[in-house]
Amino acid sequence: MTKAVTDESFETDVLKAQGPVLVDFWAEWCGPCRQIAPALEDLSEAFEGKLEIVKINIDENPMAPTQYGVRGIPTLLIFKDGKVAAQQVGAAPKSMLKAWIEKNL
């Protein structure tokens, strides 16, 4: 299951996480964000133990998206050891998201 993070918890939940973390930058009003949400939920189960998937609402948490140059949403960033390892902007089918994650783990 995906977990919500905030600007306050970002350092602990993402940057200091033990393994890789995929961060979904999203907003309530974003149609494509809602479109990929079920796929991300499924993928969080498929990659359990290998990758944590978290979501951050950019309207409620403006610091993290600004810090990482998020311009369009959905933006997905994979963090490894506190650094951005991969980026995907825009909605994509679940199969493409899965392949992108596998390639970047």
Brief account:
The protein is α/β, with parallel strands linked by helices and about 100 residues long. The protein contains four helices and five strands.
Give the helix/strand layout:
Elements: E1 3-4, H1 10-15, E2 21-26, H2 31-46, E3 52-57, H3 63-67, E4 75-80, E5 83-89, H4 94-104
Parallel strand pairs: 1-3, 2-3
Antiparallel strand pairs: 2-4, 4-5
Structure keywords:
single chain; 105 residues; alpha/beta; 5-stranded mixed sheet; 36% helix; 26% strand; globular
Would you give an account of this structure?
- This protein is α/β, with parallel strands linked by helices.
- The chain has helices at 10-15, 31-46, 63-67, 94-104; strands at residues 3-4, 21-26, 52-57, 75-80, 83-89.
- The protein has a five-stranded mixed sheet with strand order 1-3-2-4-5.
- It is globular, with a radius of gyration of 12 Å.
- 26% of the residues are buried.
Q: State the helix count.
A: 4
Distance between the termini: 18 Å
Derived from helix and strand composition plus strand pairing, the structural class reads alpha/beta
Measured on Cα atoms, how large is the radius of gyration?
12 Å
Helix-strand sequence: EHEHEHEEH
Rounded mean pLDDT is 97
Poorly predicted residue ranges:
none
Q: Helix coverage percent of residues?
A: 25-40%
**DSSP strand count:** 5
Strand order of the largest sheet: 1-3-2-4-5
β-strand percent reads 25-35%
Q: Main beta sheet, described? A: 5 strands, mixed
Tell me the overall shape. Answer: globular
